[in-house]
Structure formats: C-alpha cells, structure tokens
Amino acid sequence: MSMLIRRSNLMVPVTNAKFAAGAWRHGADAITLDLEDGVVPALKAGARELVRDAVAVAGKGAAEVFVRVNKEFLVADVEASTWPGLAGIMLPKVESAEDVVEASDALTSAERRRGIEPGTLSLILLLESANAVFRVREIIAASERVSQVGLDESDLSASLGISPVAEYDPFVYARGRMAIEATAAGVEPIGIAHPLGTLPRLLSGDDMLKVATDSKNLGFKGIICPHTSWVSSVNTAFTPTESQVDFYTQVRDVFAQAIAAGTAAVPFAGRMIDVPVDEWAKVVIATSTACNLRDAEKQTAMEAASV
Amino acid sequence: MAPASQPERAVAAPKSNTDVVLLDLVEFVAEQDKPSAREGLVEIVRQVRESGTDVFALVDSELLYADLHACVCPELTGVVVSHLESVAQVEEADSLISKLEDERGIPPGTLEMVFSLDTAQANQDAFEIASASRRITGLTLGRAELVMDLRPEPSGEIHLMQYLMQKLITVAGAIGVPAYGAWWRTPDRGLLATPENTGEAALRGRAIGFKGSFCVLENQVAPMNQGFTPSAQEATEAGKLLESYRAAVSEGTASIRQGDRIIDSGTALRARLLIDRAAACEAHDKAKVDALAGRPVPAP
C-alpha cells in the first residue's frame, strides 16, 4: 500500500472565486473547498452550485480535492460535491460513530450514482467537542473511509468556554489522546502546535517552519492551512531533510553490517543503532521517497496547467 | 471553604463576595471534632443561605451516611463528595440523597452533587463515575496531588497535574458540566497561596477551561473571582472583533484578517461567548450585592 502524503491541506471558501480559482498554484498536497464555516449562511445554497467546477479547477495542480460539508446539510452537500476529481469530504462537528456511518453511507450512495469506484472516497474527520475527543476511538473505527482526523481547536475551545491565550496550551490532553488513538487505528492524526490551532495567524517562513516542525514532532502527519502562506513551510516541515535521509541511509548500512557480523546493536555517530532505529530509518527513507514523488507529480501537473 | 467546626467563619464567609460557601466536613475538621461539627451544620447552612449565597457541604464518600444526614436541608444547594472512587459510591450517595430529600421536604432530584476525583482510580474511571448520576453539576480534582502523592518539579509545576486537569476538563465537557480547579504551582495553594498567586492560578485555570475554583482564605476570593471573570478589556476587544466579523459576514465573507491574525467563525463564536460570560458574571455579582443588602434578587 502506498504511503499517504497529505502534509498540507489548503482550505478555501468555495464562494471566494479568486481563492478557489488560484488554490492549485500553491503546491498544497490537498485542497479543501469549504462549504461550512467559511461560507456565510446567506450564500450556502448558491455555494453548492459552485462545487463541481471548483473541484475540477482545484485539482489542476494534482492536489487531492476535498469538500468540507455542513453536518446539518450532509446529503445535499455530498450530492453537490461528488464529482470525478473529488478525493473525499471533510466532515466537521463529528460527535459519534453514527455521524461517520451516515457520512460514509451518503458517499456510498453518491459514488454509485456518479459512477465513482465504490469505497474510494475518503473521509477527514474534525472533532470539535469534548464529547468527540472522549469518543475518538469509536468515531475513527466507524468507517474504513477515514484517512485523517483532527481537532478543530477553535470550535473546541468555544465548546469548552475557553478563551485561549498563547502562554497556556489547553489541548495537551486532547491532542495527545487523538494522536495516540488515531495512530493505533492506522488513521493519520492532523493538527498544529499551540497556539496556532486556537489563535491562527500569519507568520514569517522561518517561524511557520518551526511551528509546523513542532506539529510533526507531536505525532501529526499534516496541517490544515487557512492561508496559502502556510503551505510551503508545512510541506517542508513534514518532508525528511536531505541530511536526515543521508544519516538514516548510513544507519541502514551500518545496521546491515552489524547483523552480518552477528550483533543487533551497534554504536554509530554517537547513537546506538538497533532494531527500532533501523525500523525508523526505513520510515524516514520511504517517507522521503514518497514526498519526492508527490512533489514531482504536483510540479508536473502545475507546469502543464500553467501552459 | 469554611470548616464546619467553625460556625463564625462559615456564617461570615458570604461577606468575602464568594459565589458559594462550601461547608467543609472533610479537609479542615479534625476527626474528633466531626461529630460536634455535624450537629450544628443544618443551622449554619440556613444562616449562610439567608445571605443569598449558594451553600454546599464537602462530604466524605466514606462517611456518607453521617455527613449527609448532618447537612441535607431545603436551604442546601448541594454537596461536594470527596474521594469518590467508584460508580457504586455515586449510586449510594445519589440514593441516600433521594431518601433524605423525600424525608426532609426537598423537591426530588434538586440537590446537586459535585464529584471530587482525587484518586488514581477515580481519574481512570472518570467518565463512568461522572455519568452515574443525573445530579452531577461539576467535577474537580480536589486534592489529587496530595492523595496521589504527586511531587513537584523544581519549577513548581506538578507535571502530571496538567494531564489530569485537562482530562478532567475533557470529561466534564463530554458530560456537559463545568470543571472546577485552578492551575496551582507549588508551594502555592491552600493557606500558602497569596492573593496574587491565587489570581494567577485562576487565570491559568481559566485559560485551559476551568470555570471556578476553591479558596480557603477570604483574601483569595476576590483574586479568584477576578481571574475567572473576563476583564473589561477582553470584553471590549471581543465586542470590536465581533462587530468586524459581523460586518464581513454581511458582505459575504466568513474569514477576515486583523493585522496578522486570522479571524474565523470559531474566533467570533468565542468572542460572543466571552461577552455573554462577562455579562453573566456582572449580573451575578450585582445579585450578590443585592442579596447581602437584603434587596430582592431576581431568579437566575
């Protein structure tokens, strides 16, 4: 099974014609066209009419294209979104396993009607309440379609009556619980280090790279980007560096020689290399390869689309 | 918190402007003083209640029968049950309170319970315990760091408490009740916490989702209330933010920039909730002043 590389997921309101038309140019691994909180209530109905064309445009640079649906208008939004080129939907305000099953059933039905291969549309889940954080295990397990799960920290803090401040991270437990449960279930946890989850802002490239790297180090596999300026730093942070790949390539050689010499633990460059390190080396190298392939695929598509 | 064995302190407690007087039968009452403290407790509850303040009693899950018989009366708002460890204990407390409500002319199901989950077992089973009674109106960790023997780091932070506090807040949120506590750093807390440090513990507590906490000295009440109340500046800024956001929405945009900040619907919702909370705190403070002055107070 190929490795999922969905480091950056750029969120754009489908009603913002300029953003929706230009989103593909920013190199995001995924683009999510928002029908939910990014669209004002008065424009919701009209927004659905825009999705079909927007999906096609957003996919021009080989990004996976998702649509964030309104939970209360699930069926109508899924119906409006399920066109060839769609990778899946982002389901917000998930409270229970039943919510996930309902969304999955809506996708199954839409796949059948639109001639899309059954079971191929994916789900990204957003947890926005303490109840959802507490029930994360059963929520994730409710459908094979679930590929990623994240906290909507802004809405979660509203739900808990928290006025967040940068100095004190309110979601150490929630993020940790979700990351562990998701990883155990083979689903990718996504999210961002405090305080950008509750207090999103624009940062310089270096500062954004640091926050994105901190996020990777929390166990996350990608970040939903509310602004195009986040994308490049996020992609870089979640891609192994050349020096990491060099180091772990050497680790693999050193460890193979050690095994041939009859030992499974050997010192190298000040570190002890044993089975877990060799296993991690495989992950880093495979991730690097997959990221490079994904970047090349996007680059080719973007160049072709630009002509 | 006022020791049930010191009636004068308990009866004077509302003058500190506290939201609740918690009559303590557990922490600050010596074992040999408990029988006499229980004897006069109902009268103290009535006297405190006359000032308009909510009155709770802190009772011991292992001495439930004696403690509940001593405090349950129509003037009592509820009980904080300490050292809860199991669903069975919750059911026992709930059933005993129901019986006492029936015997003492209290409308059934009206006495509240706040659970103090201060043992490792209680925190392990927090969700099940908290779900076991419909009377529950709050959760707290009580004196978990003492009960669980959690030692501070050199910085004063009790490392595991951050995990326990945030888990408690999550469980409380999942059940739909507030979590009570403050983010203390040793050696603060209890008799040692200065007003300044109490205010900081309250601010940290509010920033992670607590809604209020416990004081053992009168001079801790004002900074505790202040720390858990949105400041005038916060409310003003929230008002401005909400105004800008609403103007943007009326023009068809649901996400705006303020300087380098990204303002979305979640930010706007939080601003509205903060304004509501500030107004509710203000109304509650006014009601307390009116009650102390003997003026009629409208029902909440």
The SS-based structural class of chain B is alpha/beta
| Morphology of chain B | globular
Greatest interface by residues involved = A-B, 43 and 38 residues
Q: Total number of β-strand segments of chain A?
A: 10
Tell me the layout of helices and strands.
The complex is a heterodimer of chains A (307) and B (300).
Chain A: E1 8-13, H1 17-22, E2 30-34, H2 44-58, E3 64-68, H3 74-81, E4 86-91, H4 97-114, E5 122-127, H5 130-134, H6 136-140, E6 146-151, H7 153-159, H8 172-184, E7 188-190, H9 205-217, E8 223-225, H10 231-237, H11 242-260, E9 266-268, E10 271-273, H12 275-306
Parallel strand pairs in A: 1-2, 1-8, 2-3, 3-4, 4-5, 5-6, 6-7
Antiparallel strand pairs in A: 9-10
Helix pairs in contact in A: 2-3, 3-4, 9-10, 11-12
Chain B: E1 2-3, H1 7-12, E2 20-24, H2 34-39, H3 41-49, E3 54-60, H4 64-71, E4 78-82, H5 87-103, E5 112-116, H6 120-124, H7 126-130, E6 136-140, H8 144-147, H9 159-175, E7 179-180, H10 195-208, H11 221-227, H12 232-250, E8 256-258, E9 261-263, H13 265-292
Parallel strand pairs in B: 1-2, 2-3, 3-4, 4-5, 5-6, 6-7
Antiparallel strand pairs in B: 8-9
Helix pairs in contact in B: 4-5, 10-11, 12-13
How would you summarize what this structure contains?
The complex is a heterodimer of chains A (307) and B (300). With 307 residues, chain A is of the alpha/beta class.
